[in-house]
């Protein structure tokens, strides 16, 4: 299953949707929240909504009652992941928030081109991808107050020519992007497209969409069409450095990830994880590059 959503014009706020468009299952919502420790919910609310108790903020961080998450709940089996996605979206509709995040995190000089978003897509992933992510977050929460989950970009190869129908991930002809979206990341293929691994054999992400674009290839042979992935990454405790560490195959103890800070060797920061269970590929965003 995949869900492709075009830009929705001027509709950019969750509360612009009319009540008859909402699909709310109050029993399902109550059961969902009863399965979540109250302390965890309060920490998330205090951190992301500044402890606001109004109905709007309570509703915004609950994916089970958000109309824009109805389809996503059929695609992703992790309640924790969807809650972080709802927190990320705030009162914005999720696909509109992704488009806005794409533009606001594009930091490279515009002489390389101007991105124009075509669509945001979600693909149903193997349940094991969400399951192992939940287990890893639980593992982190045993030793940390915050698993440090960030929405980060990943550039990859997407060969699909059609925006409406992704390639079959079970086919030998399937592209890297569809494989990642449907099966999650494979650490054994880390850095297969680039010989230089600044922080060793890990999975690389960028907070800047333009940084991820530099690792993307034209989609389906089209010279101006590209796709990058938005992922939710559990970074845990980061080892921050400005030095190259190409010998790594795991983060320095006692850390769970590496944060490459801007310095004398790096112009744009990046993050690296060394376990595929620390990330869920959430969405892809397809865009055209227009030259000035």
From TrEMBL:
SUPFAM superfamilies: ADP-ribosylation. InterPro entries: ARTD-AVP (IPR051712), Poly(ADP-ribose)pol_cat_dom (IPR012317). Pfam families: PARP. One of its GO terms (molecular function) is NAD+-protein mono-ADP-ribosyltransferase activity. Residues 179-283 form the PARP catalytic domain. Coiled coil: none annotated. GO terms for cellular component: nucleus. Gene3D superfamilies: 3.90.228.10. This is PARP catalytic domain-containing protein. It comes from Diversispora epigaea.
């Amino acid at each position: 299953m995949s869900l492709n959503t075009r830009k929705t014009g001027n509709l950019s706020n969750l509360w612009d949707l009319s009540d008859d468009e909402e699909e709310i299952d109050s029993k399902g919502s109550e059961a969902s929240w009863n399965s979540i420790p109250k302390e965890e919910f309060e920490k998330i609310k205090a951190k992301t909504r500044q402890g606001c108790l109004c109905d709007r903020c309570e509703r915004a961080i609950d994916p089970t009652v958000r109309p824009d998450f109805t389809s996503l709940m059929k695609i992703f089996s992790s309640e924790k992941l969807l809650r972080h996605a709802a927190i990320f979206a705030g009162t914005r509709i999720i696909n509109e928030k992704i488009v806005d995040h794409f533009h606001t995190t594009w930091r490279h000089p515009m002489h390389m081109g101007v991105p124009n978003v075509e669509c945001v897509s979600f693909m149903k992933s193997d349940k094991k991808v969400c399951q192992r992510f939940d287990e890893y977050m639980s593992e982190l929460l045993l030793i940390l107050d915050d698993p440090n989950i960030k929405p980060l970009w990943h550039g990859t190869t997407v060969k699909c020519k059609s925006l409406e129908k992704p390639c079959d991930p079970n086919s030998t002809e399937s592209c890297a992007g569809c494989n990642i979206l449907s099966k999650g990341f494979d650490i054994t293929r880390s850095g297969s497209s680039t010989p230089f691994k600044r922080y060793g054999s890990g999975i690389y992400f960028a907070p800047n969409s333009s940084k991820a674009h530099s690792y993307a290839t034209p989609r389906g042979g089209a010279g101006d069409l590209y796709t990058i992935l938005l992922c939710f990454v559990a970074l845990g405790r980061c080892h921050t450095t400005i030095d190259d560490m190409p010998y790594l195959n795991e983060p320095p103890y006692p850390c769970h990830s590496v944060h490459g800070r801007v310095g004398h060797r790096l112009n744009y920061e990046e993050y690296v994880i060394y376990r595929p269970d620390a990330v869920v590929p959430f969405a892809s965003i397809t865009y055209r590059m227009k030259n000035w």
